[in-house]
């Protein structure tokens, strides 16, 4: 995914760009509001997410967000030291998709980036009616929240389905534990780790495919596409 990082502090931008690159992002760094707006021409320039710091040297970050939203529907995550509710509401009213307060946890930031990217309108090039994810013998039907293996329906709980659907959207990609907890349980990592392990074990058992979800030690989990 291409990501536009709007940050006037070169040291902060370099450190964050390195982290994002390690997680598979193609990062373009803009140092001002005007530079960011130019980078988004024409029609978003292929970026998947804009990470917008509000403390910019040439324009107010809120103003930049409003201009971005008038030009494109690309998800915008505001990054700021302002933690008051009024500032957050103002940013969201201008069209921001999410709001991260400094200092933030890198795992949380990555989870929020992936979350807003998935909320975008589906690719119009996708075949009409193509609302399922096929992984070898496993079929995940998103509208009906139904999962089947070799045509046989497997009964999953709501969280089991959400967990499987999350991993299945990007087979082979490692999802950090913190990211999974944030997106499936909508909470922080503390105290929820054991719950995640239990749900992974349950999915492996119900699907009768223990190798489908691979544990990446010290990081998280990824879904392994079954071979024919």
From TrEMBL:
Transmembrane segments: none annotated. The keyword Transmembrane does not apply. Residues 2-117 form the Response regulatory domain. Residues 130-225 form the OmpR/PhoB-type domain. The modification 4-aspartylphosphate is found at residue 53. The keyword Transcription regulation applies. SUPFAM superfamilies: CheY-like. Keywords: DNA-binding, Phosphoprotein, Transcription, Transcription regulation. Pfam families: Response_reg, Trans_reg_C. It comes from the Bacteria. InterPro entries: CheY-like_superfamily (IPR011006), OmpR/PhoB-type_DNA-bd (IPR001867), Sig_transdc_resp-reg_receiver (IPR001789), WalR-like (IPR039420), WH-like_DNA-bd_sf (IPR036388). Residues 130-225 bind DNA. This is Sensory transduction protein RegX3. It comes from Streptomyces neyagawaensis.
């Amino acid at each position: 995914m291409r990501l536009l990082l709007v940050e006037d502090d070169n040291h902060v931008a370099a450190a964050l760009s390195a982290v994002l690159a390690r997680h598979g992002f193609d990062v373009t760094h803009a140092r001002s509001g005007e530079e960011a707006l130019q980078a988004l021409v024409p029609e978003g320039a292929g970026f998947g997410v804009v990470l917008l710091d509000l403390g910019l040297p040439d324009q107010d970050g809120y103003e930049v967000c409003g201009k971005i939203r008038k030009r494109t529907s690309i998800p915008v995550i505001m990054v700021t030291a302002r933690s008051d509710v009024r500032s957050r509401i103002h940013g969201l009213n201008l069209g921001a998709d999410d709001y991260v307060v400094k200092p933030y946890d890198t795992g949380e930031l990555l989870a929020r980036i992936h979350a807003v990217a998935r909320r975008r309108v589906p690719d119009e090039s996708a075949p009409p009616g193509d609302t399922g994810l096929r992984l070898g013998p496993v079929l995940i039907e998103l509208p009906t929240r139904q999962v089947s293996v070799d045509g046989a329906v497997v009964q999953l709980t709501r969280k089991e389905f959400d967990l499987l659907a999350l991993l299945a959207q990007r087979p082979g990609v490692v999802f950090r534990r913190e990211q999974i907890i944030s997106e499936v349980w909508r909470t922080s990592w503390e105290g929820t780790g054991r719950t995640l392990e239990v749900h992974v074990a349950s999915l492996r058992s119900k699907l009768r495919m223990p190798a489908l979800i691979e544990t990446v030690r010290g990081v998280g989990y990824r879904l392994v596409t079954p071979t024919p």
